[in-house]
Amino acid sequence: MSASFNAYPDPMRRRLLTAMALSPLLFSLPGRAIDAPPDITRIAALEWLPIELLLALGIMPLAVADIHNYNLWVEEPKLPASVFDVGQRTEPNLELLQQLKPSLVLLSQGYGPTPQKLQPIAPTMSFGFNDGSGKPLTVARQSLQALAQRLGVETRAVQHLAQFDRFMQDARRRLHSYTRQPLLMFSLIDSRHALIIGQKSLFQEVMDQLGIKNAWEGETNFWGTAVVGIERLMAVSNARAIYLDHGNQAMMDKVSATPLWRALPFVRQNQLRQVPAVWFYGATLSAMRFCRVLEQVQERNS
The CATH number of the domain where 43 resides is what? Predict the structure, then answer.
């Protein structure tokens, strides 16, 4: 076998290797193009969790889905007017997305269009909010590192997570007063139902790090939230409460005028505070914003 191989003249071997290297077939093999990091100035994000992951890495997306509701439910970080809106998160405008020629499309697992549907437009990368462990913040840290590796900006993830850890250590000291009383967190879905943030949620993992007890001891879903009738909040006593506003003040005014609402223990005890929106299905930036909101409430009460 060795004698047969060496029988080929060296110039012939060199020409063969050169031809292979220059062949366009080599670069069209499946998976070849995905090895190179995509252009980070041309990334689209079709759900708000991957938007946050991008922003945590200091990367502004080219296009996102549903900016109007992002501004209501997420609010910060702000998106500049230069970012394209490609429609709904569940059904984005694929024609516009194709015209924008993104280098990569980011998704949330199980939400919105499938990677197969987007395959003709660009490569995709999907992220889960929870992996069943009930630790969304831990999952978010892993997602941030995975995205940074895909984009070739690993040092940015390291820097951000180090900054986040320092922030949380300081927040534990600043928010120590919250450890004295359980905290209820909710938003309104309609005039009869509240969305409660409980166990297995992003905020719960943050509160665990801060030493704050969640006042909601009822059931939650995979996402760490529960939709319940407002009457069930009657069972929450001796607790602080924060209501996360997302541009529905008219609904809040209607609900707060009802006898049921006025009878809620935390309302009667003047323990309820209304705060700006914080995205409860987010990642590290949402966790930091949640802490800042708690601190703002604390300052108003002092």
Answer: 3.40.50.1980
The pLDDT confidence band at residue 248, using thresholds 50, 70 and 90, is confident
CA angle, 84 as apex, 79 and 86 as ends, to 5°? 115
DSSP state of 200: T
Confidence bin at 27 (pLDDT 50/70/90): very low
Structural domains in the chain (count): 2
- Phi/psi for 85 (5° steps) reads -100, 120
CB 200, CB 222: distance < 8 Å: yes
Q: For 113-149, what is each residue's pLDDT tens digit? A: 999 999 999 999 999 998 888 899 999 999 999 999 9
Q: Which amino acid, 216?
A: W
Q: 223 is in which domain, residue-wise?
A: 171-301
Strand arrangement of the beta sheet that strand 183-188 belongs to: 225-229, 193-197, 183-188, 240-244, 272-275
Identity of the residue numbered 196:
I
pTM: 0.85
Q: Are residues 103 and 185 in the same domain?
A: no
Q: Kindly state the greatest CA–CA separation across the chain.
A: 96
With contact defined as beta carbons under 8 Å apart, do 118 and 47 qualify? no
CB of 200 closer than 8 Å to CB of 224? yes
Give CA–CA dist 43/64, Å, rounded: 9
Residue 158 lies in a domain: no
Q: What whole-number distance in Å separates Cα of residue 266 and Cα of residue 257?
A: 15
Q: Are 26 and 20 in contact (CB under 8 A)?
A: yes
In the 8-state DSSP scheme, what is residue 45?
E
Nearest residue to 139 via CA among 205, 64, 198:
205
- Closest to 137 (Cα-Cα) out of 212, 205, 48: 205
